[in-house]
Specification:
191 residues; 6% strand; mainly alpha; two-stranded parallel sheet; 2 strands
């Protein structure tokens, strides 16, 4: 198979290359950058010419105005004193210390109150059923005794009234219509 490569032509291309200043100021043959500014500028111009030639050869661009090579500004890093890990942690968490202290005090107070309340709550006592039944029987016997004593104080008419009242209540429960009729009869007799 024959592969034919298409020929491409660059149309109106501009190439800009920035190189760190310390690379441009260092001689191509190696060594250190000169400390004299005039000497360093001479080396920078030689290196710029060299980089332009490399770009021309790689791209095929022949117009020098389409190629720009310049130093990239280098900003010196400000020296910062190294801080210990403890200092860094202290700076990170110091704004929260007041809130943390208040939270610890509140939590401790809550635990103190809870333990005090827990000690003062009476424990539930289990009373045997037999004892409860015995107390109920005693109460019923006392009520019955009081009722009988009260009955002994009543005269004969009051006793009859209580018996009639009880009988009417029974009749109302059994048959309310008959109870109503009986009451009407009694009312009519008294009039």
């Amino acid at each position: 198979e024959n592969v034919v490569k298409a020929r491409a032509e660059l149309v109106d291309v501009t190439i800009t290359m920035t190189v760190p200043y310390n690379y441009l100021a260092t001689p191509l043959k190696g060594g250190k950058a000169p400390e004299d500014d005039a000497e360093a500028e001479k080396i920078i111009q030689q290196n710029i010419k060299h980089y332009k030639e490399m770009i021309k050869n790689a791209t095929g661009i022949t117009d020098d105005s389409k190629i720009s090579v310049g130093p990239k500004p280098v900003f010196e890093k400000e020296e910062m004193p190294e801080e210990s890990v403890v200092t860094t942690i202290w700076q990170d968490f110091s704004p929260y210390l007041g809130k943390a202290f208040i939270a610890i005090i509140a939590f401790g107070s809550l635990l103190l109150v809870a333990s005090f309340v827990k000690k003062n709550i009476p424990k539930a006592q289990q009373i045997p059923i037999e004892e409860i039944e015995e107390k109920i029987e005693q109460e019923v016997a006392k009520e019955k005794k009081d009722f009988l004593a009260e009955l002994g104080k009543l005269d004969e008419n009051e006793m009859k009234a209580i018996q009639v009242k009880d009988r009417v209540q029974e009749m109302v429960g059994e048959n309310s219509e008959n109870a109503a009729g009986l009451l009407k009869t009694w009312i009519n007799k008294e009039e």
